[in-house]
Structure formats: C-alpha cells, structure tokens
Amino acid sequence: MKSILVTGGAGFIGSHLCKALVKKGYKVICVDNLKTGKIENLKEIINNRNFKFIKYNIIKPLKLNKKINYIFHLASYASPPYYQKYSIETLMTNSAGTYNILEVARKNKATFLITSTSEVYGDPKEHPQKESYWGNVNPVGVRSCYDEAKRFAESLTMEYMRKYNLDVRIVRIFNTYGPRLQKDDGRVISNFIYQAINNLPITIYGKGMQTRSFCYVSDMVGGLLKMMFNKNARGQIINLGNPDEFTIKEAAYIILKLTGSKSKIVYKKLPEDDPTRRRPDITKAKKILNWKPEIKLEEGLKATIKWFKDEK
Ligand code: UDP
C-alpha cells in the first residue's frame, strides 16, 4: 500500500485532501503544527488505522521511519491577515520548510507536489493569468512575505527536478472556499458569511470593484489528486481555480441574498498591494489533467453557509 505525506494536512484544504486520500485506500501521514490547522478538521479520519497525525513544525528537518511514495506539501499560513501577522514564520515555512520536505522527497524518491498560489502573479498586468506569466509582485511589500516565499518555494522545487531529477509538480491555487474555512480566517468568503449570518456589518475593502474567482473545495481537491496521479503532470506548473470572476461587491450581495441577512454593507480601507483583478486561465489544467471545476458559486456558497450555521 502506497504511503502519502501531507504537510498542512489539518488545514482547510489539507483536511479535505487527507479525507479523500484515506477514502481511496492510501496510508496517510499528516504533519501539521496546528497554528491555523485544527484537529477537529480531521475528526472523520483521526481514528482510521490508515491515518497518522504528527504535530510538527517543518521549519525543522523531518525524519520519518517509513517509506513515503507521494508528498503533498501544503503547509503555510495562507490568508492575508495571518501571513502578515506571522510574516517571518511564513517566509521560513515556505523556504526552510519546503527545503526540509524536498529532502524527504529526495531521500524517498517520492513524487512531490507543492501548492503554490495565484499570489505569485502579484497585481497582475495580464488577465486572465496563464502559467507562463511572470507576475507583477512587489518584492518588499506587506504581501511579499507570502508572494516571494512561494516564488522561492517554486524555484527550489524546480531545482530539485533539475539537479536530482525529482518528480515534482507545482499547483498555483486560486481563491478557494468551502466548509472548514475558519470564521476568523480573515478571507473574504468566510468574513462575509460569518458577518451575514450574525447580522454584523459586511466589510467591503475599498470600493469592492476588485475581482476574484472562487473555487469550491471539492473541485480543488479533485484537481490536486489529478495533478499528483496523472503522469503527464510531471514537472508541470498548473493553475487550479474557478475561472468565473466576480467583484467583491457582487460576492457580498450574493451572500446577503443566500443568507437572507439584514446586514448593512460598510466600506473599509483597501489593504496595501491588494490585487485588482484575478482569474485563472485553466487551459493547461483542462488539457493535461482533463480537469475543470463543476461547482458554481451559488451552489458552493449554499453548502458553505450551511456549514457555518451548523458550526455556530
Ligand atoms: N476583502 C473584503 N472584505 C473582507 C475581506 C477581504 O473586501 O472582509 C477583499 C480583499 O481586500 C480582497 C478580496 O476581498 O480584495 C479577497 O481577499 P482575501 O483575503 O479573501 O484573499 P486574497 O485574494 O486577497 O488573497
């Protein structure tokens, strides 16, 4: 039976991924320092005999006494308020941490998949964003602790392929949402849903005309599995996200409608270096992985709202 290491496996996407892998019959080792991940996220699989949880910070070298066949490397702070609050940790997790996990991959000759981010495109001047676009990133701005750390992690990953012929795959994840997004995560969908169901003001930053494209978590997990297990994805860098683009104001009104909330909208200062537009070009994912998202925003939001209400 093949063994899979998932770093950041107790987090939002990681926990959905671990569950899918256990269901497929793999032995899964989940490593997470539980800074933003939560053990509750793993409650459906924590007692499964094919699942093992290790609380560990990957900034330190990781030794495992078991052969590993595949590695999904997801560990990192990922929401802007958190990665800015823990900026040095974010830089170290994606640099030293990625190095430590690549070493595990090299020693095990494991297939290594890293989840990078649409943030590597910065405030993009090309729209929609193709993988071939080099990005427009402020290298010293408040988001650089995440953007540049992920760019470094991508670079290191590619060098392990060039120098050691390691089988690597890079996914650039665009905004993803769904059940298990933490209510205090600070991202737009979790903020708006939490505010709407508690009749608190909906906080739109800036004029709300900036755009994002939101992918439901089950679609994202499906894409990550295809990326890992499709041999044509070896050495590839592929965007995963939903190309349906919405302004933040549109997202606010959709959530108000779906929750039937009486919340008022309030406008707050736009955060520094907030990207103006973001939409993935997913031509490559369609061609190489035969993947495209299936869940429309309203459908995914309904399921997410239900989860937020049940958690309340
Ligand atoms: N945003 C907002 N209100 C909030 C949280 C976020 O208007 O309460 C905006 C934010 O300024 C950005 C977009 O929503 O333009 C997406 O923000 P998020 O933090 O979810 O992720 P990003 O795509 O910026 O990494």
Could you give a quick summary of the protein structure above?
This protein has 312 residues and is of the alpha/beta class.
Question: Can you describe this structure?
Answer:
The chain is an alpha/beta fold. It has a single domain (3-177, 215-243, 279-294), classed as NAD(P)-binding Rossmann-like Domain (Rossmann fold, 3-Layer(aba) Sandwich), CATH 3.40.50. Helices cover 38% and strands 18% of the residues. It contains 9 helices and 13 strands. It has helices at residues 12-23, 80-85, 87-108, 144-164, 188-197, 217-229, 248-259, 283-289, 297-311, and strands at 3-7, 27-32, 51-55, 70-73, 111-117, 168-173, 176-177, 202-205, 211-213, 215-216, 237-240, 245-247, 265-268. The strands form 4 sheets. The chain has a 7-stranded parallel beta sheet, sandwiched between helices. A two-stranded parallel sheet has the order 7-10. Strand 1, helix 1 (12-23) and strand 2 (27-32) form a beta-alpha-beta unit. Helix 1 (12-23) crosses helix 6 (217-229), helix 3 packs parallel to helix 4 (144-164) and helix 5 (188-197) packs parallel to helix 7 (248-259). The longest helix has 22 residues, at 87-108. The N and C termini lie far apart (39 Å). Bound molecules: uridine-5'-diphosphate. The site of uridine-5'-diphosphate (UDP) has 14 residues, from helix 5 and strand 8. Uridine-5'-diphosphate is lined by residues 79-80, 175, 187-188, 191, 203-205, 210, 212, 248, 271, 274.
